[in-house]
Amino acid sequence: MINGMNIEGPIEIKDNSAERVAYELMIDIANAESPEYDRQNADKQNNPRLYYLSLYAECLTVATGGLVPKSVSSPK
After folding, report:
1. Domain tally, the chain
2. Do residues 34 and 74 touch, judged by C-beta distance below 8 A?
3. CA-based nearest residue to 62, from 40, 32, 29
4. Which residue segment(s) compose the domain that 26 sits in?
5. Does residue 26 contact residue 59 with C-beta atoms inside 8 Å?
6. How confident is the model at residue 61 (pLDDT cuts 50, 70, 90)?
7. Domain-located, residue 48
8. Nearest to 22 by CA among 45, 54, 69, 70
9. Cα dist from 30 to 27, 45, 47, 57, whole Å
10. Does residue 43 sit within a domain?
């Protein structure tokens, strides 16, 4: 367990970082998924934290040159 955190100096979020690209992609995907897909996706409804963290991890994998996991399927 972390008892505290110290950050020294400014925090920079660069527009072209892989993390920023992954974040923007995650937002675009989450917004583009149809309402019907949202109703079928129990993870997004019951555990939105897990949904968004998993989606971000997949987006970061792609943004850093990795492959999309085979378990990812497009909404119907």
Report:
1. 1
2. no
3. 29
4. 18-63
5. yes
6. very high
7. yes
8. 54
9. 5, 12, 14, 13
10. yes
Its sign, for the CA torsion 24, 26, 30, 32, is: positive
| Radius of gyration of the chain from its Cα atoms, rounded to whole angstroms | 15
Residue showing tokens 């998924």 = 33
Q: d(Cα 7, Cα 46) in Å, to the nearest integer?
A: 33
Is residue 68 very low, low, confident or very high in pLDDT (cuts 50, 70, 90)? confident
Q: What tokens does 63 get?
A: 């943004």
Q: Return d(Cα 76, Cα 14) in angstroms, integer.
A: 35
Tens digit of each residue's pLDDT (9 = 90 or more) over 25-47 = 999 998 887 666 666 666 666 77
Rounded CA-CA distance 25/19 in Å is 10
